Amino acid sequence: MTQDLAAYGYLIAAIFFIMSLRGLSSPETARGGNLFGIVGMVIAIGVTVLTPGVVSPWLIVAGLLVGGSVGTVVALRIQMTALPQLVAAFHSLVGLAAVFVAAAAFVSPDAFGLGAPGKIKTASLIEMGLGTAIGAVTFTGSIVAFAKLQGLVSGAPLIFRGQHLLNALLGVALVALLVWFAMRGHPAAFILLIVLSLLLGFLLILPIGGADMPVVVSMLNSYSGWAAAGIGFTLSNTALIVTGALVGASGAILSYIMCKGMNRSIFNVILGGFGTDAAGAAAAAGKNDRPVKAGSAEDAAFLMQNAGSVIIVPGYGMAVAQAQHALREMSDLLKKSGVTVRYAIHPVAGRMPGHMNVLLAEANVPYDEVFELDDINRDFASTDVAFVIGANDVTNPAAKTDPQSAIYGMPILEVDRAQTVLFVKRGMSSGYAGVENELFFRDNTMMLFADAKAMCDAIVKALSGSSH
Amino acid sequence: MDDKLAGQAAKLASQAQELASNLRGVAQQISDQAALNVAGLPDGHMPFVALLTIFALACFVGYYVVWRVTPALHSPLMAVTNAVSSVIIVGALLAAGLKGLGAAQLFGAIAVALAAVNIFGGFIVTHRMLSMFKKKQPVKK
Fold first, then answer.
1. ipTM of the complex
2. Which of A37, A271, A343, B26 is 20 to 30 A from A181 via CA?
3. Is A393 an annotated catalytic residue?
4. Which residues pair with A310 in a beta bridge?
């Protein structure tokens, strides 16, 4: 296959990738979208393998076999609750692959039409250097994100003195190295560039706390796209450039949506350490003796069964307790006794964008019962019971009323406007932002102190006991 | 009169000759330039500005396409973009498919394996997620 023909193939692949993302605009067309992506990938790989430059298939076959079987096994075995860390791990692989491709192009540039070894053009060196740096940052950054999501390291923000200064210095050094590398193309510069970028990726993600992971995962998603685009420039490959731009834009938009969902700027998130010090103080001061109304599973079952409508607000606590199946059973029973049940999802609920939607879908909750914040918020006022399970900050009215609060301005689900609010929670602790939730102390709030799954199971028991 | 005419004709002819030689020079320059460009841009390589144009337009396409994705499918979106960005495998294939066995081939093979994990894993996990999203059944018992 000639280069010209290959370029047409890459164009077709790029169009398929665009169609793939386009398919995700609704759940009906989404599976088709995934298929488009697969076809696009097959075309891109097929075209490349048929170019005259590829003469020895053995390493390719070996790589595809090893990587393909690992990927298949992992993807088939993974639990849906472990999805965020899986995605983080996948991002790290894209980053590392970008580094290796750049390294291959650097040691034998003649194979990629970049000139003789040691005599690579400056423009190619710049593109190569950028792709490498972004790839390496993505690699270590995603590893840290993976470790935090998997619970291998503490999800708490890790902050030390002079951290931002160190990162800034590293950033400046990286730019200087990039310039040196572009001017000389020295191997030492290349290696140093990789090492420094790896270090920076590590340090950048370390200070970011667990509940900010939706932003981090989206951001790394974006980086992996930009790294691919950078390599695309080096190889003059349109499929890579187009795809890199698509993925980069996608990740950037998701990060933006997540930040908006928390009313924080991306810099605020990256600089890390959300309310860590204040949280301790507030929690200590907040350990007060104000009375709360605690209820039992039977109380909750009675309340909901006699309600006309219930809105369920799931949060990360539901994911941790794996309560989604028990929750669906509960809502099935309620629906059977004539209660309207809907779900309300906050944009930043869970540990990755759309996390709650996937878990509810896993538990066979129909997606047309699940609503986004803007679509359901006004309905709380006409709802009898809001059932909050494993969520806290995203329901806190202080975000609307208290300008002093750390979460002031964050869009919330207005559960406080429902007739009765049920909170399934293990204790009285404040949420990730370290802000106490006034709702707990209201008269029309009932606290259900238990593990989310245990509570749902108990309510199911109470419901089925009373209806038969 | 004839002499005058002949003189003008000769002048015209010499001008025409000069013009022709000038044109030849320009043509030579153009073809030289073209040859230089070809030498500067080996097989299938496009000028930087063309690539940048493609990149910029693709960013806009991405922007509009992604805003249309329903928030409920943001997790599958991430998984599928992740699989798709593994198209970086094309660079890895070029290196791994070179003749002989050296550093480039080795780096290429590693990158092929890494990207393959993502491609297979990413598309499969996306499929798993998407097949869970179901509509409300009209009659449910």
1. 0.88
2. A271
3. yes
4. A341, A385
| A42 close contact with B: CB closer than 8 A | no
Residue A386, helix vs strand vs coil: strand
Does B47 contact A at CB distance below 8 Å?
no
Q: Where are the beta strands (DSSP E) in A323-391?
A: 340-345, 370-372, 385-389
| Inter-chain residue contact A30 with B90, CB threshold 8 Å | no
Whether the CB-CB separation of B115 and A261 falls below 8 Å is answered with no
Residues 6+ apart with CB under 8 A from B122: A71, A75, A90, B79, B80, B82, B83, B84, B86
**Taking a C-beta distance cutoff of 8 angstroms, is the pair A114, A53 a contact?**
no
Phi (first) and psi of residue A79, to 5 degrees: -75, 145
Query: In the beta sheet, which residues pair with residue A294?
Result: A447
Nearest chain A alpha carbon to B81 = A247
Q: How far is CA B11 from CA B1, B7, B15, B19, in A?
A: 15, 6, 6, 12
How far is residue A445's CA from residue A292's CA, in Å, rounded to a whole number? 8
Strands A445-449 and A309-314: unpaired
Backbone angles phi, psi at A115, to 5 degrees: 110, -175
Angle (nearest 5°) at CA A434 between A433 and A437? 95
Per-residue confidence (pLDDT) for residue B40, from 0 to 100: 44
Question: A245 and B112: CB-CB below 8 Å?
Answer: no
Pairwise CB contact (< 8 Å): B129 & A83: yes
How far apart CA A318 and CA A360 sit, in angstroms, is 10
Q: Which pLDDT value is given to residue B38?
A: 44
Measured on CA atoms in the order A37, A42, A43, A47, is the torsion positive or negative? positive
The gap between the terminal CA atoms of chain A, to the nearest Å, is 71
User: In chain A, which residues have pLDDT < 70?
Assistant: 1, 271-289, 433, 466-468
